[in-house]
Fold:
Amino acid sequence: MPRRRELKGIAINFAQLLSGRNNDYLGYWAIGQLSLLAQENNVGSIKLDLINFNSNIDSPELAKIYHQVRAELNRLLEAQKIPYKWVKSILVEFSFNQEYQEKYHYWRSALGKHYLVTLKIETDLGFVNTAVEGGNVNPHDPAKEKRRGGF
Structure:
């Protein structure tokens, strides 16, 4: 029997998935592509509302990434048999050019600039589950990156 408290675990796992190297879009790391998109739009962060499909950037590429992220979220919720009516809002913020935080970032700048992924899941009862993950990222550059096979 599912419980609302399972949403905390889903928030943590989903934030790790979004930040991880296996999160790719069209064969390239999605965080690198989002970093480039933020740079091109002169914003420090990209915010996605996964329930209402709102974002602070209007981009066809972001819309495609949104649908991929939303499909993965649906998979996680369905695996735990969490009813959608329990979820009031799901907000994801990809923040770039962050200050160094030992918990999330590598000190060496050659690995890229610091980023954070903040995920907030609010339940229908008003409780908010928050998870934060981070790392280092360079903006997407196909000349420097190797594409995953199958694309």
About this structure: Helices lie at 6-19, 30-40, 60-79. The chain has three helices and seven strands.
